[in-house]
Every structure is written in C-alpha cells, then in structure tokens.
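Co-fold these.
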Amino acid sequence: MIKDLTLPDLGEGIDGAEVSEITVSVGDRVTAEDTVLVLESDKASMEIPAEATGEIQKILVSVGDLIKTGQKLLTIDSVDSKTKEKETPLKIEKPRETKEEKKKKEKEPLELETLKTGSTENVFASPGVRRLARELNINLQIIKGTGVKGRITKDDLNGYIKLKMMMVSAGPSQSQPDIDFSQWGETEVQKLTKIQKITGQRLQRAWQNIPHVTQFDEADITSLDSFRKKLKKKAERKGIKVTFLPFLIKAITKTLKEFPVFNSSLDSSGQNLVLKNYINIGVAVDTSAGLIVPVIKEADNKSIIELSEELTDLSARARKKRLKPKELMGGTFTISSLGGIGGRFFTPIVNPPEVAILGVSRSFLDNMSVLKLPFSLSYDHRVIDGAAAASFTTKLSEILFSTAFFEDKEYE
Amino acid sequence: MNKTSHVDIVVLGAGPGGYASAFRAADLGKKVVLIDRDAELGGVCLNRGCIPSKALLHISKVIEEASALSKMGVTFNEPSIDLEVVRKHKNRIVKQLNGGIAKMAQARKVETKQGLATFLSNKELSVKTENQTEVITFNKCIIATGSSSLMIPGFPKNHPSILTSKTALDLIDIPKNLLVIGGGVIGLELGQVYAALGSSVSIVEFLPNLVPGADPDIIKPLERKLKKQFESIMLSSKVIKVEPQQGNNLEVTIENDKGVKKNLYNKVLVAVGRKPNTNLLNLDATEIKVDDAGFIEVDVYQRTSVKNIFAIGDIAGNPMLAHKATHEGKVAAEVASGHPAAMDSRAIPSVIYTDPEVAWAGLTEIEAKKREIPYEKGEFPWAASGRAIAVGANQGKTKILFDPNTKQTLGVGIVGPSAGDIISEGVLAIEMGADASDIGLTVHPHPTLGETFGLAAEAYEGTITDLYVSKK
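Predicted complex below.
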C-alpha cells in the first residue's frame, strides 16, 4: 500500500518550516523510525521519521522548500503491500545526480534560472494557477490547497508568498559592503548555520527595537554553594548532576513572582502589557549549530532535582538537534549563563517578546573569602524602569544569599 | 554582396505555431522577423490543410444532410457540382484568412520575409529570397517549419494522379474511382469529401483499425457511416505496387491475408502520415539534436539542445496538430522573451472532422490498458438524447474516463456531430481537475448535444434520470 507522509503538527504557532536536508532518495528502504527529512523552523531543527516501513516511492519536496503542516512530503510503498505484489516489474533506478551536476544544471545560462518550479504533474491546480506558480517560482508540489476538495487557488499562492516574505523581512536591513578581504591575506569562508542566521536576525531586530538598559549586581552565594555541594553529593548517588543553574532558576521564579512586570510582554499594539500567570524559564544553550533556548515550563513548580534532570535532558537534546518545537516556545524570562567559562559582567540582549534577561558570569572568591556571583540584568526600558530593575537584582541577591528558600523546597 | 542584419527573435515558418510565436513575442516588446518559404502566411493549416479541408467538409456534410432529408419528407434533386465555384469558394476563405494574418503582422510591426532559411551556425541563418541571399544573425530563433506529407518509396514520382493532402485539396477534378492509402484522420476526411462530391472511394489501411490512436468504440459509428459512403474499406492490407496505366490511371496491387488483388483507380491519395521538415534547415551547422524520427528534441520550455534556439509544432514532435503548435509557439515566445512559461498542458484534443465527427482528449482506454492505468468510465449513448435523435445523430456517444480514487477526469471520447466542439469542455475538465460530480452538477442547456457531456458524468455518478442504469 502506498502511504503518504505528511508534515505533522509542529506545535503551537508554527505552521511552516524549511526543509534543510533530505536524508533519503527514491528507492531507499526505510523503517518506521528512520529519519527521512530534517526541517528547520525558527529555532528548532527537527527530524521527521518515516512513520512506515517500506520503500521511498516519491519525494515531493526539495531542500529549501517552505512546507506547511499537513502537507504531503513523500510517499512510501509500505512493506505489507510489497509482499503481496511481489511481481512488480523491474525497477529502473535513475542515477543520482552528483552535487556538481546539480550545480551545473542550476547554473544554466539564459534567463531561465527562475524556471525551476518543479513538475506540476498530479497537482490539483488550474492552468492559470500553474502559470502563476511558474511566474512566482513556487513549487506547486509543496503547496497545500485550501480550495474546494483541496484545489490550489491563487490565494494559496499569495498566502505562501506572505509567509515567505515574513521570513525574509526578518533579514538584516542593511547589507555589508562587499570587501575583498583576501587582498590583505589568506581567508576562508565558513557558512553560517541556519540557526546562526535566524538568531542573528532575531538579535538584530531585538537590538534595534528594544531600548536596552543593563543593571549589574553581585550576590553572595557562599552558603548556597556549600548547600549545593551537599545536595550534589546526595543526588550523584541517583545519577543526577546538580549544577548551580537550577538554584538560579528557582531564585528567578521567586523574584519574578514579586516583580510580575519582568514576567510580561508588550502586546502588538504597544499599548498594553500582558502579565503572565505562569513562569517558563528559557535557558540559552550553546550548540555546534548555534545558540538554542529550550524552555522549562512552570519552573516555579519544580524542585531543584527535577530542574536538574530536565536541564540535563534539554541541553543534551539541544546539542543533538532533537528538541521539539514545543520545547522552544512559551518562555517568559531567559537566563544566559557563562558561569562555566569566565568573565565578570556582560550585557545580554533581551529575547522578545520577553522583557528581561539575566546574564550570569563565573563566581569568584573576593578578598574577604566571600563567593560572589556577578550577574547582569538587561531589560526593555519601555516596560521596566531603572528603580524596578535595581529592586529586582537586589531581591535576587537576597534570595541567593540564604539557603532558606531552597531548603524549604527541597525535601528530596 | 550579401546583406547582413541582426534581429532579436527570428521565427522560421508562418504556420499557426510560427505566427503565434512571432505575434506573442512582438506583443512582449521584441523585434521579430517572421520568415516563410511561401508568400502567403498561415502555413499548411491555413493554405492546404485544416481550413480548406473544413470548407470542403462543410459542403460534403450539407450534401449528405440534404439527401438524408428525403427520409424526413423533404426531397431535393441530385446536386449538380460546379467544381470551379467550389474551388473559388475555398480559395476565397483561405485568402481572407491570409490577409487577416498579414494585417495583424503589420499592426504588430512584425517584419515578414519570403525565403528559404538555413542555419549557418547556432547564431546565424542564411535566407535565400527571390533576388538575393542574406545573412541574419539572431539572439533567439524559433523553428516552426512544420511537416510535409510522407510519400511511399517506390511509388511513381510526380505522377499527376498520385495525390497528397495538398494536391487533393486543389480539387483539380472529381475522379470516378479514388483509392485513399491510409485510414488516418487526413485520409478519412478527404475520402469523405471526394465521396460526397461523387467519387467512388476505397480506403486501404495497413493496421487492423481505422485511426489507430483513438478508442475503437468511438471510431465504430464513423466506420459504419463510411462503409455506406465508401466503395470499400480494406483493413490489415498493404499496397505493394502502384503502376501507371493508360489515361493517367493507376493499377494498385494490394495484399492482405486473403491474397493479392489488383485494382484500377483514376487517382490515388497518399495519406500515410507526415514527416517533420527537419532536413531542409541544415541543422548540421548547429548543435541542435534531432531524434530518430526526425523531430527536433525540446524541453518543456520548447528549447532545443541549443538554448537560444526553440522548436515548436510538428517539427518538435507528435501530435502534429495546429492547436498544439499554437500553444507551444506562445510558450517559446514567452520563454525567449524572458518570461517563465512552460508547456504543461495535460491534454491536447484530437478531432476528425468527418461526419460524424470524432474527438478525444487525455487518456484513451487503449492507452490506459497498455500503461495499466486504473480508470472507470461514464458513458452516455446519444440514442437517449432528444436533440441527437431530432437531428439524426443517435449513433453518437460521449464517454468520460475518471480516476477511480479522485474521480477526476482523465480522458474524454466523443463521436457524433459537433464532437470537436463538445470536446473543449472535456479538455477544460481535465485541465481544471474537474471530477464527476463537478461535471454532473454543472447545468447543461437542454436540448443540446453538449449536454451529453454532463449526462455521461451523471451516468457515472448514478444520478442520471435520462437513462436507466441497473444497480450493480
């Protein structure tokens, strides 16, 4: 039986993702769990499994295509049917194009580079829509029709273009001058990863749109650190690694409860503040592909041990690109920790639509043998004023100073 | 001395495909030169093909209908035919259309040239006109030089009694006996014209069916009619010899499984197919690739293997039909002008303009069976159509092939008067991906022959009330 693989729901808000890699080709045999496609949405990179065991019959998308939830990606001739119709005629496999050949093809002269919109065979679209798709350089195989009986309409093409434009308009507004650096010595070109590109666009937008102020402070964590060491030993027996980060997350949740404005967002009109009655903490994780911010949901309701486990899991999966889009969304406040590396203070950039971010550096012993944690709070000055920020950092320092808050919560 | 000039786009051949590309390119702002070896524009289709044959088929149809009226109580005298006037009438129609094209070319500032063009390289042409030979260099070239009638090797050359479709349309006289070699579209159409004008027509076809590409069920009603009109229809038969006899007659030796037979005919019309005019272009001077059948190879953008040279119409492959050439011509013109067009038509309709007409488009049952494509069909026999009965067309039939899963239209076959007009709705249905209910739920006017298309879909859907279809 021929089974269609469609793009599953990627979670709240995401209705499009870009195909970054196709790991199979027509004729390949796959099992249900095999990855067939790698997609990249805003920040997540996700692998789409085959869902059925069998032979890849048709691949309907290509790298770079923007695809939508519910869209057909490929068809698999699944095994149970294979056994039935054993006498299928000899299959002639088309030799796969090498990358060079493909490049050569694409570089064909004449003004026809635009004419790569793919086959319109088996597409449910009228001749006029097919023509428009060619003019707009849209591959109809990847468009999901919203017309009667799933017909692709001109509106579907317009919608696709809008989506594409939204992604493009996030790009840097000013281009760099084209400088030939090799005139001064040897150079090497390294491509930015997809995540780096998107992060760059988002940071630039945040930097340009949000009036940033950064408040610096230090907390005395001498006693908290020895408390942590005790807990760490206990937890190690269970195979759980307790770092300082879960304590910081707990402390932040408590501070946020007292200063709810730090746990808010401006609405799109810029006229209202949306205060959130939940606390989801994003934690910036550095991966080989770039910066990823998984979100710990309802961090205020979780114990240090629970947080530790979740952090270990999330950061491991972030590095393997195995996070689900859901796990990257819904944050209300972000922590960026450089504690393991060094430095004293830095000015983190707010992660919109959040309004504040905490940057944590490496703790150090001062000349009084007090263990100090330097941290920086960047905030959106449209929402938060300086006095509130100073009170916030003071409160945070207070919470981190004693172990009371943590002992209370930690029965484990 | 040779004159050299440079043009943006040069179009070779002013047939329906050629002038369409030239005009389209001009409308897109290009400077275009249109070259044809004939003085008159319009190519085979207009001058010695589709149009003159339709003028004559109209006459033969009216003659036929007039005689059929006797059954309805109206009797005419035997028609007297003034061939001279018939010829003039046909030529006037052709001339009127020629003039129309020339005027449109003028209005678009498309320069037309009469001459024989041959390639010098991938970028140059030599054009031999009446008085001189000039060299034209071009940015883009669109080849639309069409096809010509295939002759059977070994036949007497230039014999006045051996006709091609072109000379048959000249209508020199009405032979008493005419043998048509080839039971394809052209043979049947011209055979019917001559039969109506008074010839005793025989047809010989090498294959076991007339019009081998079409489904037998839609050819059958035509075949029944032709059997009455023609002296004989010889299928699975081969002409092995044609010998000139006294008085410009021809003795033809025909072989089939029953044996070998010799017959004497006044004239023989050879209509065994057409061949692309590839060899007249000196393509060796270019890097254009030609396939084994002599067609120029093109991609969906109508580009040849030389990317600034396009080919369209008969010379670029089957089916050799004017309406296919027109569409390809426009695609070539648009791509050559930098627009992202492509030939992605899902169906190209074929029509035999005989009486009754036969038309089909998209998937045929023959092809579906050959390629193991699953299909289901809806059929409506015209014997159940009030209008068809009223006009004596109850032999007709409309059938639609549907995809069993999506119920979308895959193919259409129609036989009966005006089948060639009714088929357009079928082609639109295929292009639009219309399914059986879309067609059945579309209100068709009653009583018309066109409504049989809606009824065929209803028959498939089981919603028809003009027929009784027993439940499965």
